[in-house]
Fold each of these.
Amino acid sequence: MSELVLLSANDCHLCDHGKQVLAELAGEGVLSWREVPVDSEEGRSLELTAPPMRPVLYADGTVIGYGRLSAKRLRRQIARAEL
């Protein structure tokens, strides 16, 4: 499984929710992830390919989710070995 990357913005309730979902799944050993702030150098680079809604979740450089992230959906993707 690759490390997921969460592109997040400051003062973003959906970003906070996404971090909670990813932390929960990481705590279960389901996935690993890291956060990239949109105002960082890496974040500005990712933003070029990102949809306008935050947060944006990437796997291997490909957008796999954005907006309100779903733990159920991520579990299904992992079970199908899509991540």
Amino acid sequence: MIRIIYKWRLKSATELVNFQLAWAKATTVIRENTPGARGSFLLQSLNDPTEVLTIARWDRLDDWKLFWEDPNRSELSEMHLYAERLSEAAYHEIEDHTI
């Protein structure tokens, strides 16, 4: 398993609800239609309400790379109406003790 951490900057803190709805829709579509996609979760900074992270789980790095290489990929376009994606980084999931 891998995790991809995306850092976003909301256009304003009031856009969180719109971004959250767009993220939920995109996550569901990607998870249901993309091999290796396992969903994601959304975090908002306590120090800066315009900073959010989305952390996606994928079976393999190659699955995620294939998703990004698809020129017809449009699942995230609505999210970009409310926030700018600042970065993404891939991590191996070593162990997870959350419940």
